[in-house]
Amino acid sequence: MNDKQLVALQAAKYVKNGMLVGLGTGSTANYFIEELARRQRDEGLKITTVASSTISANMAQSLLLPIVALEHISYIDLYVDGADEITPEMTLLKGRGSDLVKEKLLAKAATQFIAVADESKLVSTIGQNFVIPIEVIPFAWQLTKKNLQDAGGQGDLRPNAAKDGFWVTSHGSYVLDMNFDKSLDAKTLNALISDTPGVVEHGIFYGLTDAVFVAANGVITERWA
Ligand code: 5RP
């Protein structure tokens, strides 16, 4: 069993009968979804799920997990998702893909949000290994980019896969992939980007994580806020 699978299975132990469970997106979250389906089949676990992306929704459906649409929920019991970066203060960088709006809504709606990762995701500061994805309203992208540049950001619109247009998220936003001064702390950066007009959502998950489960060479560490 690899480290991503180990932490996903550990997080699945926190799922109890009757819960409404948020499904993250990515390879680590996929292991969690598979384990929920196994527990439903082998142990008779009774849960309802809500997905953070079409791909997770499709996976849950194909594994016969009961699923409700995001627009029909106002809370969830537990959300489990991976991350691209995790700081010692448990701030996350997420949203390498196209679904960070739904991911952040679920993280905020959850009574408990557990982030799961292997140790490659541990960083000392947000933005250490990845650019910060910032979803912007398409018609506002130039004004938003200018404001973020004036605040010290550097970067540009993410191209689409064919490199003949711009990437469009599941929410219909463009994505500015930006770097900022590494000395800015996560709280300041979070507020700076959130307060910029035209920004729909961004990949810094500040103050949302209840626990981080990290596995390194087969050993799981649970950290609770
Ligand atoms: C997608 C995410 C993923 O959770 C993150 O990229 C981690 O992916 P993986 O588990 O495949 O390493 O934030 O928006």
Overview features:
225 residues; binds ribulose-5-phosphate; 4-stranded antiparallel sheet; 14 strands; 7-stranded mixed sheet; 2 domains; 6 helices; Alpha-Beta Plaits; alpha/beta; single chain; Rossmann fold
Structure description:
With 225 residues, the protein is α/β, with parallel strands linked by helices. The chain has two domains: 3-119 and 206-217, Rossmann fold (3-Layer(aba) Sandwich), CATH 3.40.50; 132-202, ACT domain (Alpha-Beta Plaits), CATH 3.30.70.260. The protein is built from six helices and 14 strands. The protein has helices at residues 3-12, 27-43, 54-62, 100-109, 141-150, 186-194; strands spanning 20-23, 48-51, 67-68, 76-81, 85-86, 92-93, 110-118, 132-136, 154-157, 174-179, 199-202, 204-205, 211-216, 219-224. The strands form three sheets. Strands 3-2-1-4-7-13-14 form a seven-stranded mixed beta sheet, with helices on both faces. A four-stranded antiparallel beta sheet has the order 9-10-8-11. A three-stranded antiparallel beta sheet has the order 5-6-12, covered by helices on one side. Helix 1 (3-12) packs across helix 2 (27-43). The radius of gyration is 17 Å and the shape is globular. It starts with a helix and ends with a strand. The structure holds ribulose-5-phosphate (5RP). Ribulose-5-phosphate binds at residues 24-29, 81-84, 94-97, 99-100, 103.
